[in-house]
Backbone:
């Protein structure tokens, strides 16, 4: 009898479990440190309920006349998000770490960095969503700018 109850409980938990979700984002926006420059990138990840994981890559162009370096980042992030959409919105907080490469003229710096930020995913139609995101990057080593701000908007596809 005890085994039957345990198996029944395990079956109910498995049936009620939320499936893992994944998504991919193509984004464009601006890096605002030291001046606003166009940036682009992509992210892909997945998660269960309120915890998600993602990898993202972004590339910001150099503005040599203004002394603004190019910046490429590759970060692994953890997202804490509402498990369900609130209306059409799913807010999230994210933090992570990875590598960056900053370059201006002939000078480059490649090192590790960390990021913290947040945003919201907005449902459009079916699996298509819009993602709005803000990040603050802290770059280690000897970069020209050790704190960098970035804002983007992206097309997000859930699968």
Residues:
């Amino acid at each position: 009898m005890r085994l039957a109850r345990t198996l029944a409980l395990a079956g109910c938990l498995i049936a009620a479990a939320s499936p893992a979700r994944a998504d991919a984002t193509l984004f464009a926006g601006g890096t605002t440190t030291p001046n606003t420059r166009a940036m682009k990138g992509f992210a892909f990840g997945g998660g269960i309920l309120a915890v998600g994981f993602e990898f993202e890559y972004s590339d910001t162009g150099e503005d040599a006349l203004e002394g603004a370096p190019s910046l490429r980042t590759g970060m692994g992030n953890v997202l804490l998000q509402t498990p369900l959409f609130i209306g059409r919105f799913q807010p999230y907080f994210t933090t992570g770490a990875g590598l960056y490469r900053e370059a201006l003229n002939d000078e480059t710096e490649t090192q590790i960095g960390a990021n913290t930020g947040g945003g919201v995913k907005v449902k459009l139609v079916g699996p298509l969503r819009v993602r709005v995101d803000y990040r603050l990057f802290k770059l280690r080593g000897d970069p020209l700018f050790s704190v960098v701000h970035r804002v983007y908007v992206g097309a997000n596809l859930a699968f």
About this structure: The helical segments are 2-16. The beta strands are 21-31, 37-48, 51-60, 70-81, 89-104, 107-125, 128-139, 147-158. The chain has a mean pLDDT of 92.
